[in-house]
Design brief:
CATH topology of chain B: OB fold (Dihydrolipoamide Acetyltransferase, E2P)
Number of helices of chain A: 5
Shape of chain A: globular
Low-confidence stretches of chain A: none
Shape of chain B: globular
Oligomer: heterodimer
Mean pLDDT of chain A: 94
Order of helices and strands of chain A: HEEEEEHEEEEEHHH
Distance between the termini of chain B: 16 Å
Radius of gyration of chain A: 16 Å
Number of strands of chain A: 10
Structural class of chain A: alpha+beta
Radius of gyration of chain B: 14 Å
Number of domains of chain B: 1
Distance between the termini of chain A: 21 Å
CATH superfamily of chain B: RNA polymerase II/Efflux pump adaptor protein, barrel-sandwich hybrid domain
Order of helices and strands of chain B: EEEHEEEEEHHEH
Number of helices of chain B: 4
CATH architecture of chain B: Beta Barrel
Largest sheet of chain B: 6 strands, antiparallel
Helix content of chain B: 10-25%
CATH topology of chain A: BirA Bifunctional Protein, domain 2
Mean pLDDT of chain B: 93
Strand order of the largest sheet of chain B: 1-2-3-9-8-5
CATH class of chain B: Mainly Beta
Chain lengths: ~220, ~130
């Protein structure tokens, strides 16, 4: 999580895409979520808190992505809702590689909507990407100064913490979906990313920032 | 044109002199960007404890909409002497009256000058240029 925040701090830099998976499987809470509102907290092997809002996500059979860019970048310029539509257009295109026709939810509720779990995938909005009548991509943004971090999760397989959600399924793995997303961002928004590992300075800063995500006081949350 | 009885930060906070203190809030533009016209999309606002000392442009709070958490930055340095606690339970106030009842914090400034901030015309020009 610390590396995501490093990307958010990278003012003036070219857009950055980070693709990753988790070991061990981890429950991440939304920035303002109350611990007591997420029953899965007591069942997950590991728990952290994100700097983005929204509901909790169980990072197990999924691909996590972060896209950081300046607020003035064409991907993020203007209202939050429009920036979501642009990011989701790229993800929807990527998912066509796996035979999935994802679309924005629109006004209708989804079969994956559930009360009381506190999970991101059990709560949907008009801007969420869904297929088969269920939510398959969870997204949340952090806006700080002139930077935006769009953080999200694409479900690859079923997860006992999040029953009923849409998954990519089949033989799709995180690397394959990630490669498709990379190509889709280039095709939809002309963003060409150059692969590179984090610098030593970025790694140091990420460790420093990342310690907070599992710090007991931070985990307790802003709202108790 | 936005109200000219106050000054603005490019990050969409406003500051208005009120006696010996300064009221701080966010503009209608900020509210619209976060909520897309749906006041129910604003879900939580975290404000500082009174007594906190702030440096100019320091983050004093955070606001969460359905899809984004954004920082709130103070236009002036000083001590937070009061917060608008109505906001935490009634975020719709921000959509309904961002210039009045939607103020967020009252600050006792170390310097009452607002000259370093954008006036309404300059703020409008900033919006036109960057959005």
């Amino acid at each position: 999580m610390g590396l995501d925040e490093v990307l958010l701090e990278g003012q003036g830099e070219a857009p950055a895409l980070r693709l990753y998976t988790w070991r061990p499987a981890t429950l991440s809470l939304g920035y303002f979520q109350r611990l007591g509102d997420v029953p899965a907290v007591g069942q997950s092997q590991a728990v952290v808190r994100r700097i983005t809002g929204g509901g909790a996500i169980h990072h197990a059979a999924e691909l996590t992505f972060s896209i950081a860019a300046d607020l003035e970048h064409p991907l993020y310029r203007g209202p939050v809702a429009e920036s979501y539509e642009r990011v989701h257009a790229a993800i929807a295109l990527a998912l066509t590689d796996f035979g999935i026709e994802a679309q924005l939810r629109g006004p209708a509720a989804l079969s994956s909507d559930r009360e009381g779990s506190g999970m991101c995938f059990h709560h949907s909005t008009a801007l969420d990407l869904c297929w088969g009548g269920a939510k398959g991509v969870g997204s949340a943004q952090r806006r700080r100064g002139a930077r935006v971090l769009h953080h999200g999760s694409i479900k690859l397989g079923a997860d006992p913490f999040e029953p009923g959600v849409a998954v990519v399924g089949g033989t799709a793995d995180a690397a394959g979906v990630g490669a498709s997303l990379l190509r889709a961002l280039a095709r939809t928004h002309g963003i060409d990313f150059e692969a590179r590992p984090p610098s030593a300075a970025e790694e140091r800063r990420a460790l420093e920032l990342g310690q907070r995500s599992s710090d007991p006081a931070f985990l307790r949350g802003r709202r108790g | 044109m936005r109200p000219d009885d106050r000054k603005y930060l490019p990050s969409h906070e406003w500051a208005k002199l009120d006696g010996d203190t300064i009221l701080v809030g966010i503009t209608d533009f900020a509210v619209e960007e976060l909520s897309s016209g749906n006041e129910g999309d604003l879900v939580y606002c975290d404000l500082p404890e009174p007594g906190r000392q702030l440096e100019a442009q320091e983050t004093f709070g955070e606001i969460e909409s359905v899809k984004a958490v954004s920082d709130l930055n103070t236009p002036v340095a000083g001590e937070v002497v009061e917060i608008n606690s109505d906001i935490e339970e009634h975020l719709e106030i921000l959509s309904q009256d961002p210039w009045g009842k939607g103020w967020l914090v009252r600050i006792k400034p170390t310097n009452k000058s607002l000259d370093h901030l954008l006036d309404a015309e300059a703020y409008e020009a900033h919006l036109a240029k960057s959005h």
